[in-house]
Amino acid sequence: MKERENFGSRMAVIMAFAGSAIGLGNIWRFPYLVGQDGGAAFVIIYVIATLAISLPIFFAESVVGRRTGANCRGAFIELGKGTAWPYLGFLMVFTPLWIVSYYSVVGGWSLEYLVQALRLDFIHTSPEAMSGSFERFISRTWAPLGFHLAFLAVTVAIVALGVKSGIEKFSKFCLPVLFALVVIIAVYSLTLPGAQKGVAYLFKPDFSKLTIGTCLDALGQSFYSLSLGMGIIITYSSYVSKKENLMVSGAGTAVSDMLFAILAGVAIMPAVFAAGIEPGCGPGLIFDTLPYIFAQMGLQMPWISSIAAILFFLTILFAALTSSISLIEVGVAYLTEERGFKRGWACVFLFVVTGVLGGLCSLSFGPLADVTVFGMGFFDLFDTVASNVLLTVGGLLVVLFVGWKMPKADVFDELTNGGTKRRNVRLFNFFYFLIRYVAPVGVAILILSNLL
Ligand code: PFF
Q1: Theoretical Cys-Cys bridge with 185: which of 239, 267, 374, 386, CB 3.0 to 4.6 Å?
Q2: pLDDT tens digits, residue range 109-156?
Q3: Which residue's CA lies nearest to atom 7 of ligand 1?
Q4: Which residues, judged by CB distance below 6 Å to any ligand atom, belong to the binding site of ligand 1?
Q5: Collapsed DSSP state (helix, strand, coil) of residue 277
Q6: Cα(204) to centroid(ligand 1), Å
Q7: 219-223 average pLDDT score
Q8: Helix and strand tally (H, E) in the chain?
Q9: Is the pLDDT of residue 1 over 50?
């Protein structure tokens, strides 16, 4: 059998995990949820949910991946022989492909906005003309479709290069650039007039704004943001060497993911307040309002505004790419290891499938706007089914599998490297308790609330 590739170093592991975690979820979804769900109190619940529920699920998935060193279908075949658990492997392969289909549509929007920023469109358009331009763009037929396919093509090209030369290299290059870019934008944003309001909104909690709904949103967001419940952590962990400390790489990923989301909030919220925009305006928050802000800024400082716009959309694009490669890699690992595909052909095949599915999502804002399934257009359908059903059900089943089906000794062995990591040994029972009881109950409540 062909020898499997592994990530080259601890840094590479954290960079790849964090690259997958840090994505549109942090820059696009987190700020608008913070805006909708009441600011700082939501942020606090999000941090608690990440540490108490999502991180244990992350550990559970990495145990499955590293224990077997296999793709997610192969992993469950190996660990759940003679039971129905291997079917979970199918769900885990299917979910990321479903997600990448619409994720790459949003990735395509960021590519299009980057092109606009490079053409200096934002400073050549009046702020009034800019408002509503997002709606106009996504309702066109060919341009959004073309950008979706271009984004997807770049994604599969990186994945086709392989785990070390593609995924690892790209993540190692992108993540530091991403952090630097978002820090620059955050610092700039803090100098805008009225920025304090945005900062207070993010960091001064008003717990009277919390409802059960906002707490569940916070849990859902931490789940989405850490790329849980869809085989990514299993697949990436299968490339992690036996010497690696899974608790350290998991905690490192969770902390950098939260830090990045909060930094993105600092970059965006002050700008939103400075421009007098309603923070609770929903998913269009960054795409609809930031070009307006750049155009407004461009009236006085055209060069600074142009550079800020380019940096901003470049940040979104890189973040989206490091995540979309992880979404595609799950399918590639399955096709190459279980179905005998060559890596290149697996990439081509997945490009075609997700290109077509994503095409439907892209067109659902334009020519296919009237086609609905369960009352939703394709894009909304893909997003709703993914976030409300596929991710959460997948996450619940994995954590139940690791907490209740796998022998405790095996879980201990993976999380403590055979008992050799003393700090992990001390923490093990605490995390095992979270895996067995707290995480399943938390996710089950989330699933029920989504379905009701
Ligand atoms: N965790 C990544 C993000 O926050 O953008 C990737 C991702 C995970 C995308 C789950 C979509 C998703 F449903």
Answers
A1: 267
A2: 999 999 999 998 888 877 677 667 788 889 999 999 999 999 999 999
A3: 227
A4: 21, 23-26, 99, 103, 224-225, 227, 323, 386-387, 391
A5: coil
A6: 27
A7: 94
A8: 24, 0
A9: no
